[in-house]
Amino acid sequence: MSTTATEGARSATPAGSGSHPSPTTQIEIKRIEPETPLVDIMAGASRHEVRVHDHGFVALVDVMPRLVPEGSTADLAIVQAARVSYGAGTKRVSEDRGLIRYLLRHRHTTPFEMVEFKFHCAMPIFVARQWIRHRTANVNEYSARYSIMPDRFYRPTVDGVRAQSQTNKQGGDELIDVGAAEDFLAYLDEAESLYGKYTNLIERGVTRELSRVGLPASLYTEWYWKCDLHNTLRFLSLRMDAHAQLEIQDYARAMCALIEPLVPVTVEAFRDYEMNATRLTQLEIEAIRTGSKDIHTTNKREQAEWQAKRKSLGLDGVGAGALRE
Ligand SMILES: Cc1cc2nc3c(=O)[nH]c(=O)nc-3n(C[C@H](O)[C@H](O)[C@H](O)COP(=O)(O)OP(=O)(O)OC[C@H]3O[C@@H](n4cnc5c(N)ncnc54)[C@H](O)[C@@H]3O)c2cc1C
Known about the structure:
- It is a single chain.
- This protein is of the alpha+beta class and about 325 residues long.
- Helix content is about 40%, strand content about 15%.
- A 5-stranded antiparallel β-sheet has the order 4-5-7-11-8.
- The structure holds flavin-adenine dinucleotide.
């Protein structure tokens, strides 16, 4: 079947010059049927949603490609794009899974940009502030200038209140005594009570854009967040990491769970080569080569990082020289 359309845009070249068609030339659009039947990888759903904390969620609302041949996943778009750039040669080198793993291992990133996800998410403002730093996504956020913010606040349970870590200035993982945890929740109560003042000031005519500025960072916001797979993996790698704040880790894990069934081969490779892998510095390689427990630096942080890596590599307790045996 074929259809035709009239070109509406003005031509950059004068009508009739050279071999360019005139602006009124009819352009033929051919409809090509797929070789095998296509299926919707979201199974016809309007969204796939994971609830996070008390009021948050990550919902996958769309994906490209959404229609794939029966039995395939969106991983197919990566293979398809790679084969355009590398030609038929890649077919001989590896089958699809091997190709995806090769591309990820060797940071051939652009084929992973051929897959895109659109999420609808709700998160506290302090999580959104970290999330928005990932600049390669396209974002549209709820406008507190235009609309009244809903009465939704993040609050952990008493058990979820963490003590400041002694080793990591940016985080905490130890438990705190119950008294301090309860005081923390009382402090959140006070902050949440400002919501009444916020709505009262709006009723009395203060602009929404000003009334909101006294609301706490525990208030929920929401947005649409669209990102390609390559940059989504970068987001996941940074935000599922143990160094990220626990609250954003929960959102990143929800996102990973949502994309995994759609790009299973890529997520498996991502876990193998990124999340569960360790990068070694030149000094660390030298220490392994020489069987030394320590690296040649006076930088205490670098030394501590090496000791943590030794532990995760199972080298803890291995004495000097033993590695060479
Ligand atoms: C554990 C942790 C702690 C952090 N602590 C702090 C902190 O204390 N203070 C703070 O300010 N931030 C902090 N950040 C944020 C961090 O510095 C990054 O801004 C954030 O992780 C986004 O990373 P990105 O820039 O690689 O991601 P994206 O913005 O998604 O960019 C992805 C990649 O695209 C490229 N890119 C994107 N935009 C540009 C550009 N304009 N020019 C050139 N290249 C570009 C870069 O290669 C970049 O790596 C922290 C992040 C983490 C995970």
